[in-house]
Amino acid sequence: MPAPATPTVVSGPEALILRIPRGGGRARAFDYGRLDSAVWTSSERAPGVARVLAFDEDAGAVAVVDVRGAPRRIELRTGTTTAPPAVKLTALHSADGAAVYGVSPVGAVTRLTPTDVHPWTLRPPMAARDVAPQPDGSVIIVGDAGDATTLWRVHPPGTALLDTTVLPRVERLVRAAVGDRAYFASDSVLQPVRTRDLKAGPVMRFERRLHALAPTPSGDRLYVALDSAHALTIIDRYTDRESGTVALPGSAAELRMDPLGRFLLVRPAHAADSVWVVAVGTDRVTGHLRTTWTADLPFVGVDGSIVLAQGQDVVFVDPRTLAPRRTIAGGARDFWIPIRWDGFRPRAPGLDQPVTFPSAPVDSGDSILAAIRRSQRESTVAQRAPTTATPPPQPAAVDSAQGRLGASAPVRSPGFTVQFAALLNMDSARARASRITVSGLHARVATTSRAGTTVYLVVLGPFPTRDAADAAGRASKQPNPWVYEGAP
User: Fold this and answer.
1) Whole-model pTM?
2) What domain range is 445 assigned to?
3) pLDDT tens digits for 310-331?
4) CATH of the domain at 427
């Protein structure tokens, strides 16, 4: 029997697995590297989950759609689950796990948030069919009339229609994770649209019907599966043209992208109990594995393992050797939700203090990043100051039964980095970094290796505190900045 995998050491939020019985029951959270005992159990029964919408890291809540089609929130801080809304909604989507959008039976768009006393609602000029929330807080609304599809962009809680575009009738909307592209598919035609202003790109036509689509996390490439084709077509996001293909043993039925962009999972059209693994770095099939394909499984774990459902068990498979790393007996009876969160981690007392900036007067032209840089200088001076003979107290380790991970956390933090993108192309990363400047502080490109592939990270920092890094991320005006502890 293979030895248990060594837990992957990562900076930033903990890698966790939230497991919920498929028929509903108590939700449990597990450390990804140690799946033999739960570190947290909900105080209330959670519903059976049909699909995951998004994870709200700030609030520590997972937005899901239950098996009855209702949006729900599973709260990790309180162990409770919200009740379904009074209004019946379809086309449910969320960009951040906090705001959930849906379409009512009369075609109105409704936004549900934990703090709204009355849900925000908008009735567009014609009945809405779909919605696409964006990372910047705006939302794209899709409506149909005759042979045309109309798009509107609004920014709740405002109700003004900021942009409008009319397209030939389309059937499906595919969202790119980076937030600057949406793709509308109809039969053998693919129409890209820029989400910030609804400007339509050149129409792409294919010889076969579009069957499935999957963008990379950075949005630089789109993988397209065509009906009965034994290959995937790769579309370059910058040119909106075909840039290559991935040869397959047969035709594809579904595509599922690794959240970190290392692998693409392909469900064969001729076999419902298997999956092909495509390495995104080489665009080649690296393996053929047996698995049941459900809304949650298979997926690619944070350490690169391919997590499969085989019978009643869940198996973690090495992506290179295809050998099992570990098996969770009976794990397939649960719905699996991988998340990254540091809410179960013990914290040093100093980390819970609000960030403070120097008290020197700041003129009206000064920016928050100038204050951050002053805070960095003060932090450096403080770290160089001689320490007393008595070491600072360390926080005690918290028992896992109380919902905490790991041993005592060090008081002194190595700093926090803001990451804006992880790309496979150096030129694209440099171009992205060149567009990010906050009060004279420029983003840079750092390299790392994931599953043998070089990845180029667009980053800013590190900063002395998480609050300072969060402030820099907000000031950058970039979509989805990710703050994590440590240097890149």
Assistant:
1) 0.70
2) 413-488
3) 999 999 999 989 999 999 999 9
4) 3.30.70
